[in-house]
Structure formats: structure tokens, C-alpha cells
Amino acid sequence: QVQVVESGGGLVQPGGSLRLSCAASLSIFRGNTIGWYRQPPGKQRELVAFITTGGRTNYADSVKGRSAISRDNAKYTVYLQMNSLKPEDTAVYYCNTMSPSSWGPGTQVTVSS
Q: Which helix (H) or strand (E) segment is 84 a member of?
């Protein structure tokens, strides 16, 4: 049962920007810290950023300073603004709680010239 839908990915040149969106169900969004994860080709999924219900944020070193996570509580949506994209940012990006039981389809981000 899909409770999140990610969007906003695409093909972008190095140095470019993307804004990813995560539309979540009420049961997922309300009262939960929400994270953005990514899974590069051939690698394990990793957490890259999260935001608490109170708006506190945290970032993995790999995206710190280049990304900003935010949430719109009225729209049950979490965003990930990614700037200065690098080829190593290429991955499928997912959003979820800190204890996911199932995953949405993700959105593909490809950084290439």
C-alpha cells in the first residue's frame, strides 16, 4: 500500500538544481519525522536528510550545504531542494518516516552532462 508519492526528479547537468516533492498520506505525515533517502545504482539506500515535525533538519555530509529539506503541513508534503548537483547524486530518491515499512515508487535523479 503506497502511502507516499515522490516526484520532481529528472536529468540535470552537473551544477544544476532540482526540487523533489513527497506527497504523503495523513498517517505518514502527521506526527512523524520525514526523511529523504536515496539509492544510487548498485548501492544500498541511504538517508540524506530529515525534518522533524517541529522543523528541525539534519543532513548527510554528502549533501550538506547543497540541499534544503522543508515541509508544508497543510499539504502533507515534504520537499528537498538540491543545488550544485554532482554526478554522484545520481540515484532514485525516496521519502519516508524514520521507520519505513514500505516504500513508494521513488523519483529518479540523474546528473550527467
A: none
Is-contact 85 15, C-beta < 8 A? yes
Residues of the chain with confidence (pLDDT) below 70: 1-2
Cα 24 to Cα 14, 47, 53, 89, distances in angstroms:
29, 17, 14, 23
Q: Which residues, in sequence order, are CB contacts of 88 under 8 Å at separation 6+? A: 40, 62, 111
Q: Read off the pLDDT of residues 79-99 as tens digits, 9 standing for 90 and up.
A: 999 999 999 999 999 999 999
Between the alpha carbon of residue 64 and those of residues 49, 61, 68, 73, 102, the distances in Å are 9, 5, 8, 23, 26
Handedness of CA 80, 90, 18, 67 (dihedral sign): positive
